[in-house]
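Anyone else keep sequences and structure tokens together like this?

Example one:
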Amino acid sequence: MNVSDLPALNATLNGVAGCFLVVGYVCIRRGLRGAHRASMIAAFAASALFLVSYVVYHANAGSKPFPGTGIARTIYVAILVTHIVLAAVILPMAIVTLARALRGRFDRHVRIARWTLPLWLYVSVTGVAIYWMLYRMSW
């Protein structure tokens, strides 16, 4: 695997994390606590692997400028800015949410998880969108 392969891996890991988040949500709504726990730990693991891969890629390759112009660029920048801000916010939120669950503090876990899930899902989905806009779409 080359460094140039990492953006695709990063998008895949973001997508996998998003899928595990949705599965985890469905499981808890159905009362499947064990499956919920496994799904959310898997989402956390996928996001952690993403973060390592993302840092390795950008340490070696730098950033890639967006090739589009006009409204496409405006949409890209809006998605990118919200993604970056929420990605910085979601890391400590996900750690706290997971830690509360693992410690059995479910009352406190639920209070923060109601905010963590949609924000984390947004970050995962927009991570995939950013990849497609930068590497797969022709402008």
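And example two:
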Amino acid sequence: MKIKLLTGFAAAMLLTSCAQDETFENTNLQNGELKTANTARGIASTVTFITETTNHPQRMDPGQSISLSYNIYTYRLEMQGDSNLVLYQDRPGFTRAIWSTNTHRDSGTPWLIAQNDGNLVIYNNGNPIWHTNSSVSENVSNPHIKMQLYTRSGGSIPAGIRIKLVLGGNNVERKTFAEVDLSDFY
């Protein structure tokens, strides 16, 4: 009986080990680097996480923003009073917009909200004017917005720093709604 139980336990461990190998077959995390292989295209790339915002709001009203700093730059995602969501790159004495939703309105009361249906929406006077088209049928707990800074290289991908704007919820990154290659702005 003890031998059969041990054999069953060993078989379960072997199956678990094989399942893990299959799950992580194309992903390898070492020293802060996430190495991935896109087997569908035969492209291998390395992603190195640098930093992310510590404030992850669910709602942003006009004038509110989230930001992160790296070297001499600060990246700021701001919900503007003109209904436009804009990502700025700031350095001492210089500010420029590097991404926006292009939702400028001459009037109205805007806000941005990560909804419990999994969608990120800009409203103006209660009317939706932009969204991520990411709603789901189940409830999304703790929906929020964040920014992440990382590098990506390998294959035919040019090396460089990138920033992504992420809609999160249910303790996962649900959707990247914008990604900007910052090498174009240095």
